Automatic annotation (TrEMBL):
Assigned GO CC terms: cytoplasm
Ranges in a coiled coil: none
Protein name as annotated: Dihydroorotate dehydrogenase
Signal peptide: none
Classification of source organism: Bacteria, Candidatus Magasanikiibacteriota
Binding site for FMN: S20, K44, S45, K164, V190, G216, G242, G243, G264, S265
Domain named Dihydroorotate dehydrogenase catalytic: residues: 4-286
Gene responsible for this protein: pyrD
CDD domains for this protein: DHOD_1B_like (cd04740)
Residues at which substrate binds: K44, N68, A69, V70, G71, L72, N191, T192
Family label: Belongs to the dihydroorotate dehydrogenase family. Type 1 subfamily.
Gene Ontology MF terms in the entry: dihydroorotate dehydrogenase activity
Record key words, sorted: Cytoplasm, Flavoprotein, FMN, Membrane, Oxidoreductase, Pyrimidine biosynthesis, Transmembrane, Transmembrane helix
UniProt cofactor note: Binds 1 FMN per subunit.
Length: 306
């Protein structure tokens, strides 16, 4: 019942993809997601120069949320390109190259650099919530910044571009429209939401960075609403991601308007085979409800009776 999904002219074996940052940028790790049922993968965000990220502790998980402040650690674009090349030797599933930078010019440089790799789409990470001290306010809060970066990136590459937005922005649908007007081919919604954890016995924040990004089940209803709102404002396709943990979550994302569904922290909650598990759950619900294809339910929540 779940077959190949076309997204920006790229064929994904199924709509479930590995979200950025979950298994890093190593080719073997990315290929592992495909072996476990992912229809495509997104590399951990790459920058022009290598980044060590934040000191430990950088992550903490509970039953209801996962909190991280890894700090966008990555090997840099040159070493990253080699891993992207190696991935294509290990797996045939589409590869999304995520990039982040401090200026529009740097984003354009990165887009040009990563485009020589065998990637199928570029994802612009404009919305990481835990590097404010290094980069200031995320670009994803500003329509002007989103427009400027998107235009420069589109002039530097012919690879389709998806703009990753933040649930912290109150006007996310308008920001998605700004990205579309600037030439974006797709929207990724959403990144993590800002949060923190405090150890009451130590009387101190748990993370070294004090604050981090919240993912996991607690993020799901926020991400779902963002996808719903964005779908009403733009015509370009959406990657819906954020707290998706079950097949029911994934189907809800599609009914809200997503074409692809990103799976991230669910790997922590349900193991490496989570892609196969979620797909099986989706197909079980579809069989029960008489749903033959995902196309017939995409955006269905917008057509529901009040």
């Amino acid at each position: 019942m779940i077959s190949a999904t076309s997204f920006c002219g790229v064929e994904f074996g199924n709509p479930l993809i590995l979200a950025s940052g979950v298994w890093g940028s190593a080719a073997s790790s990315l290929a592992r997601a495909v072996e476990n049922g992912a229809g495509g993968v997104t590399v951990k965000s790459l920058s022009l120069a290598p980044r060590a990220g934040h000191p430990n502790p950088t992550m903490v998980g509970t039953k209801t949320y996962f909190l991280n402040a890894v700090g966008l650690s990555n090997p840099g674009i040159e070493a990253g390109k080699e891993e992207l090349r190696r991935y294509k030797e290990l797996a045939a599933a589409p590869l999304i190259g995520s990039i982040f930078a401090g200026t529009a010019d740097e984003f354009a440089q990165l887009a040009a650099a990563v485009s020589v790799s065998p990637i199928d789409l570029i994802e612009l990470d404009l919305s990481c919530p835990n590097v404010g001290r290094e980069f200031g306010e995320p670009f994803a809060y500003s329509a002007a910044a989103i427009g400027a970066i998107t235009r420069q990136v589109k002039s530097a590459t012919r690879v389709p571009v998806s703009v990753k937005l933040s649930p912290n922005a109150w006007n996310i649908a308008g920001l998605a429209a700004a990205a579309e007007a600037a030439g974006a081919d797709a929207i990724t919604a959403v990144n993590t939401v800002s949060g923190m954890a405090i150890n009451v016995r130590a009387r101190s924040p748990v993370l070294h960075n004090k604050q981090g990004g919240v993912s996991g089940p607690a993020l799901f209803p926020l991400a779902l609403k963002c996808v719903y709102d964005i779908y009403e404002r733009v015509r370009i396709p959406i990657i819906g991601t954020g707290g998706v943990t079950t097949g029911e979550d994934a189907l809800a994302m599609i009914m809200a308007g997503a074409t692809l569904v990103g799976i991230g922290s669910a790997v922590y909650y349900r193991g490496a085979e989570v892609f196969k598990k979620i797909r099986a759950e989706m197909e079980g619900i579809m069989a029960e409800e008489g749903i033959k294809t995902l196309d017939e339910i995409r955006g269905a929540a917008h057509r529901a009776c009040p």
